[in-house]
Q: What sequence folds into this?
């Protein structure tokens, strides 16, 4: 074998060895990386853009295609996904009143919104304006799955001057006012901070 042929063969063997080590978790060991979710599978797993299937932790309750996530690999080759990466600085997301007649009350009050907190809770904020002649149970909005609690949470809120009601955050995502007498003009949402699971 010529020296050039021997060099090419040695280079090919070295490249193959490096690739084998990269692919073998026993050689590579534990690892983590960022990824983009391409598929949400039944049974609590996701698939990522680089072909990895990872099991979601309980804290990652509502995975969605397009989420930027962090994934971890154990030395035995199993992948887990603790959750999505933050795209904001714990900011508020404006509530959508789609399907209801409720609106934002406006200045000088905060715009109704929600956010995930780092301690496994979610919070609501702002003042929502009720439709005219609201006199009983009324649905203000429906929250997305990421901020929907596993069990119902109840809070006392003011719905008009001197009129108090219950603010229900339900496990189907709906936020409602209930259990009051008289007319509701608004609903104060800042009272709601609740466990997600």
A:
């Amino acid at each position: 074998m010529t020296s050039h042929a021997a060099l090419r063969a040695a280079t090919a063997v070295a490249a193959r060895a490096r690739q084998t080590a990269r692919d073998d978790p026993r050689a590579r060991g534990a690892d983590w990386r960022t990824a983009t979710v391409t598929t949400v599978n039944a049974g609590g797993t996701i698939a990522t853009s680089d072909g990895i299937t990872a099991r979601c932790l309980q804290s990652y309750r509502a995975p969605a295609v397009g989420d930027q996530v962090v994934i971890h690999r154990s030395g035995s080759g199993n992948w887990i996904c603790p959750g999505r990466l933050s795209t904001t600085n714990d900011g508020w997301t404006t509530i959508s009143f789609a399907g209801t007649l409720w609106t934002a009350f406006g200045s000088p009050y905060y715009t109704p919104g929600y956010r995930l907190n780092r301690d496994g809770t979610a919070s609501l904020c702002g003042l929502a304006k009720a439709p005219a002649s609201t006199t009983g149970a009324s649905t203000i909005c429906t929250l997305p799955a990421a901020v929907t609690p596993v069990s119902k949470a109840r809070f006392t809120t003011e719905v008009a001057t001197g009129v108090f009601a219950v603010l229900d955050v339900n496990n189907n995502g709906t936020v409602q006012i209930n259990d009051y007498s008289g007319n509701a003009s608004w609903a104060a949402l800042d009272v709601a901070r609740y466990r997600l699971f």
Residues 93-195 form a domain with the Immunoglobulin-like fold (CATH 2.60.40).
